[in-house]
Design brief:
alpha+beta; five-stranded mixed β-sheet; 5 strands; globular; binds FE2/S2 (inorganic) cluster
Amino acid sequence: MQTSSEPPKVAEKPKEPAKKAEKGHPSGDKRFKVLDMTMKRNQYRQDALIEILHKAQESFGFLEEDVLLYVARGLKLPLSKVYGVATFYHLFSLKPNGAHTCVVCLGTACYVKGSAEVLAELEKHTGIHQGETTEDGQVSIMTARCIGACGIAPAVVFDGTVAGKVSPSEAIQKVKPWLNNTP
Ligand code: FES
């Protein structure tokens, strides 16, 4: 853990806006498109890194290495720099340490379709709150604000796979085997 009170410096010299590094992500995950749009809106400026990471966290629920790498490439920054900023600020969470992850979308569309109930059921069933990991290290629950799947709200991302129209009981069925340590 970083102990310095000085925030890592973000390159200040956005001379020319870097060109778009890549289109989308090979996974086809729509959340990377949202990330592309955010970087574009900020003209790929390196000094917009914090804002872009913030947006990325809203979409993904947490910042996993793949996302950090994507941002680093987009802004033409070394991964170490992006990683340094992401670990320095408390408002950013890196990938949780559970073997399985469950990200419940609490964006407006999902919220009105009941994602808060889905989250509440998951928390009740696992005995943990969002942002936490079960004691056996099996499941981490996180939240996001719009993962780009509003048409199938409420949406939950189970181990990186987006599931739509998820009811509280379906969410429980999904995480049950994880808690029982079955593959
Ligand atoms: S609000 Fe949940 S996917 Fe958009």
